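The step that takes the researchers longest sounds almost clerical: writing a folded protein down as plain text. Below is the pair of lines this work produces for a single protein:

——
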Amino acid sequence: MFLASLLLIACAQSTAGSSKEEAATATSQRGPEPGATLSSAASGATGSAAPPSSSSESVPFVAPFGSPWDSRDSCLAHVNAQQRLPRAAKTARIASWNIRWFPDGAPGNNNRRARPTDLLWLACAIIWTDLDVLALQEIKGSDHAVEAVAELLRHLETLSGDEWRVELDSCPARGRQHVGLLVRVPRVQMTHQQNVGSLNPHGGDCTKQLRPGFGAYLKFPGGLDLHLVSVHFKSGPDHRSYDLRKRSLEAVPEACAELQDRATDLDTLVIGDFNTMGCRKCRPTRTMPQELVEFELRASQLSVPFRRLPSAPACSEYYRGHPGLLDLAWLTESTQEKVRQVQISGYCAELGCEKVPRDKLPVAYTQLSDHCPLIVDLEDTDRD
């Protein structure tokens, strides 16, 4: 019902013109109101680290307006000047972004700690990063969220002149976070959308408030085609949460089998928030880097082997002023298409993953998300 309502509202408006998933834990993980701009948040922050090459469709990066992550107005100035995050020609750009409890910024409907998502700034940031597809996490399913997604689509279409489409998992909406995919319709064909229930470690698509993956088959103009799965693994530094994440990872081959039932192609990119935060309550304890190394080893030994695509800089979110790497991309080892670049954008890149006082976190942390976009550029050809 949630997905049906979302599509109806989105279409109508287009025509007219952890444990985060456990609310009490999630609300305790938010720091005080930040308000610094990026220029004042950390010494030595000089702007977004842009890749060396640029797309023929993108104006080379210059910054007369400050950073697009400083404010909504700065972002709009960049976009209105036709400036985009550079990308190489003949590439497909796939990204992932956990947008904190979209659109309220906190669990529940009347949370006093809520920091609503700035929808216009979010749309502007998506346009500036020049995405073709965005894997989404932490999307609420309330009526208010459905309306906010429709408003986001309207902003995206106004800023880009293109049609956009969003689809989310079909789990019952109440109190739940959803995963899904947002696509720029003229740039990519999306088919075979489906819940990937094997990635919920409790068994069943929507069991016990944890999430399935959400997958689709994508075809790009240059010939690249592959399965894409958006995921959001269990959050928490305790042994139970750590074990549930491990079980989700070990279920990836089963997830691939689910995808193959709809479209026969082994090429698969699994991307999203893996919550590899370590396990400080385990004995022995495991740090965040240790859990990531364990993930990499297990993924390489699966019956369908995957390799992690290392990203730079080495963080994708901030928690109480401390940077961490939770958002990851994994590609089947058999995939022949070349990975051109994997980067973390947003204020994470501009802060250089340095620790920041909680009261100096940038405005984008409050008004967009505690996570930053993870961006994967793949060669847009078909080599298989």
